[in-house]
Amino acid sequence: MTTMHSPALEAPARPRRRWPKPTLLIGLALLLVLIFAALFPRVLAPFSPTDFDYEALLKGPSAKHPFGTDNFGRDVLSRVIYGTRVDMQIAIFTTLFPFIFGTLLGALTGYLGRWSDAIVGRIADLVVVFPFLVLVIAIVAVLGPGLTNMYIAVSAVGWVSYWRLTRGEVMNQKKAEYAQAGKVLGYSPSRILLRHLLPNAVTPAIVYLMTDMSLGILLGASLGYLGLGAQPPTPEWGVMVADGKNFMATAWWISTFPGLALTLAGVTFSLIGDGLADALRPRA
Amino acid sequence: MHASYVIRRLLQIIPTFLAVMLVVFLLVRLLPGDPASAILGDRATAEIVERTNRELGLDKPLPVQFGVFVRNFLQGDLGDSISLKIPVIRLIGERLPTTLFLTVYAAVLGVLMAVPLAVLAAVRRNTWVDALIRAVFQVGLSLPVFYVALQLLSLLGARLGWFPIGGYGEGFGGHLYHLFLPALTLGLNLAAILVRTLRNSIIEVLTAEYVDFARAKGLRSRVIMTRHVLRNALIATVTLLGLNIGALIGGAVITETVFAIPGVGRLMVDAIFGRDYPVIQGLTLTFAIIVSLVFLITDLIHARLDPRAELT
């Protein structure tokens, strides 16, 4: 376009339609597979995840058992598929409560500022001084091993990142014209905060949620591996890697396939996180 | 670096330590039932439980107990291990050097992997080299530490026999050799965390105006790389290393468990299964103190390398 024109009179340029990057699409496709496996493991799995078969102990990958069998004759493929449900549950519950709590708290203290912000800030500084894994396993040690206690422990620690992200964003947004306009119109602070500021300020937290889900799966699997998370015979991927650790030399498949499933799930969430960060980034 | 900044930063550590102690103190009080029963087990008689409570000072009000806890800590007394019957402070003193060796070793390997690759990715940004480096480390970030540890152990340790499959070894060379696989495991994890942020911060420098200016005034690119780009990459690396010390310690807990290394990480896991609460308490405290000291050192180094940091 070569004609001169006044930008002020021009209709706001429609944002150029950007196709999501292939990484985001790959991530979403993988997520669909994981969700399907988590919801309908029976459809995909050829065997039960917990039935012993003493006729087929420690058998290598074959047509009948593509991922082999473990030392109880359980089909590793079926256990990996059923494990999707457990590990997806871990991804959701290790992040959902920290997300909700951290985001709301961040919106509140970012909006109110002053002492509420200072107090929560001190607490957040304190929480990050403890290595995440150490604090979580210390809490689990006190409460007792198991998934529920792990969720409690992670929630006590994991809210800080969401709080930081949302707080910073709300502090920026509250200076914006639309927030001031709401004030002038006489809207109540809670309406401005929940209906206007929060929807605009929650983007970084949502992007981080995806990354955090991959961290949550890793954490859950690590605790499972150490014996502090899901308890056997639950087909949880970390537990399965631990089950196979003594057979690495003779039956590598027992640990290797659940570990690959873990990696795949981690990559899925980080691809989606990156893709979302890219797609939701405000365009200049 | 101004003295006032250093003093202010040093003074900040005191309330942090006190708060850390309070958290650790309260953590063990979260135990269902009273700690003495938890320590002694179900079969202890009421009389023994009461006596233990008195011996441990658990019959006094909480603030008094906390005062005693802080006083004991200042005197270097963290209580005795229940299972090993020796002072927790001695136990930690014996095991901590191993873990420090491992984490420093891992940090060195991690930086040696991350910095050159991040520079390469930044210089060749948006080419296939960059894409490959980023993809590899993206997958690396999703690899669980215990899984990498187990695979390296089984492949390079057990199958090929290149490295020992556990233990700490004798002397500096022995430590280097014995801890190579664990340090590599942790280093790979650290490198995966570092590469991406480093790459972006190097790109920021490479495209900054002062680098354009340096080019325009005819400085050789080698000079630009060392004086501007690497210097800033160094600042970013120090900050990132400091921020990720917690992840490194968490990784050490897992790695030491997989490789059977007699450090504090493995001690922590053993203590949890032995319900050895004084040890768990002492270790949690130690880790938090290490992290806050590393944060302090990072801030001071950062302030030395980048004078603007004092203002925040």
Automatic annotation (TrEMBL), chain A:
Signal peptide coordinates: none
Keywords: Cell membrane, Membrane, Transmembrane, Transmembrane helix, Transport
UniProt cross-references to PROSITE patterns, sorted A to Z: ABC_TM1
Species the sequence originates in: Deinococcus arenicola
Record domain ABC transmembrane type-1: where: 84-273
UniProt keyword Metal-binding, yes or no: no
Protein name: ABC transporter permease
Subcellular location: Cell membrane
Organism lineage: Bacteria, Thermotogati, Deinococcota, Deinococci, Deinococcales
Statement: the UniProt record of this protein carries the keyword Ubl conjugation: no
Automatic annotation (TrEMBL), chain B:
Subcellular compartments: Cell membrane
Record's keyword terms, sorted: Cell membrane, Membrane, Transmembrane, Transmembrane helix, Transport
Gene3D superfamilies: MetI-like
Membrane topology: Multi-pass membrane protein
InterPro entries according to UniProt: BPD_transp_1_N, MetI-like, MetI-like_sf
PROSITE patterns found in the cross-reference section: ABC_TM1
Domain ABC transmembrane type-1 intervals: 96-302
Membrane-crossing residue ranges in chain numbering: 12-31, 100-123, 135-156, 176-195, 229-259, 279-298
Pfam families: BPD_transp_1, BPD_transp_1_N
Family affiliation: Belongs to the binding-protein-dependent transport system permease family.
Name of the protein: ABC transporter permease
Native organism taxonomy: Bacteria, Thermotogati, Deinococcota, Deinococci, Deinococcales
